[in-house]
Amino acid sequence: MRTQPRFLTPLEVAQSFILTGKQKAHLPFDKMLVLGILAGVYIGFGAHLATVVATGPCDYFGLKRLLVGAAFSVGLMLVLVPGAELFTGNNLLSVSLCSGQVSKGAVLRNWGIVYLGNLVGSLLLAFIVAYGSGLLDGEVGATALKLAAAKTSPDAVAGLSHNYMFFFRAIGCNWLVCLAVMMAVASRDIVSKIWSCFFPIMAFVASGFEHCVANMYFIPAGIFAKAFPKAVELSGLAPTQLDGLNWGSMWTQNLISVTLGNMLAGAVFVGVAYYYVYCRGRSSGAD
């Protein structure tokens, strides 16, 4: 008796994205938005946990980053196992677009609605954590402030502008995120899906890469934490740094460049690349 493979091959995974992308692109508006909101909340859970783990002294820089990345990976596990719509993962709709199964308009509609939903969900959780739970009134709030300020600082490093650096950090991030999604799709059981999420996500966080949906939580959490004097005092941030952390800088110093970098990596470096290798010139069976 022939045994069933324990995972999908790269060919099967790439071709499965054609049908999956077609289904995602044609979800009704209300369901797509709700699933987008849920994904924003789920990534926010991982981001808040990562903030807690990052709080406090640690003599080993790399080890601390490793632990923070391990904590954050919970977010993608919650997205992929229970099911939700995450903008960065949905950049893989480029596979369906290249195959002719969905139109450009349908892809842009999905990306726009899901991005909005992710933003709403992230803001909702940041508000709950800040003003509902009181968890940001103290050391964790100070960490949230420092993380957010670092993500919106216009300072240049080695002659490179802030937005330039964050664009390329975003490329590294979503390259790994979309590979994590592909590995999870290849898995046939929950444990394998969890491990598929864990390693690439831990790697992108520990490496210092940038994720637009994660930043939809990190930066608002820092902005909300400015309302707590104890968190501000413990953060040690200068008044100019605090003033520079605001709703405008969230977009101009981070989300715009990070979103574009995430899109390039997910849609082109992963989606188009795997479409070309495994789907171009083959029958997808999705018609």
Structural descriptors:
single chain, Glycerol uptake facilitator protein, 0% strand, 287 residues, globular, mainly alpha
CATH architectural grouping: Up-down Bundle
Question: Average pLDDT across residues?
Answer: 92
**Major sheet size, sense and barrel closure:** none
Terminus-to-terminus distance: 32 Å
Number of domains: 1
Q: Give the CATH level 1 class.
A: Mainly Alpha
Helix content: over 70%
Number of extended strands: 0
Q: Which homologous superfamily in CATH is the superfamily?
A: Glycerol uptake facilitator protein
CATH topology: Glycerol uptake facilitator protein
Quickly give the structural class. mainly alpha
Which residue ranges are poorly predicted, with pLDDT under 50 across at least 5 consecutive positions? Answer: none
Beta-strand content estimate? under 5%
Q: Rough shape?
A: globular
H/I helix tally: 14
Rg, Cα atoms, Å: 19 Å
| Run of helices and strands | HHHHHHHHHHHHHH
Structure notes:
It is built from 14 helices and no strands. It has 287 residues and is mainly alpha-helical. The protein has one domain: Glycerol uptake facilitator protein (Up-down Bundle), CATH 1.20.1080.
Please give a quick description of this structure.
Helices cover 76% and strands 0% of the residues. The chain has helices at residues 10-25, 29-54, 61-72, 74-83, 87-90, 94-99, 104-132, 139-152, 162-186, 190-207, 212-225, 229-235, 239-244, 247-278.
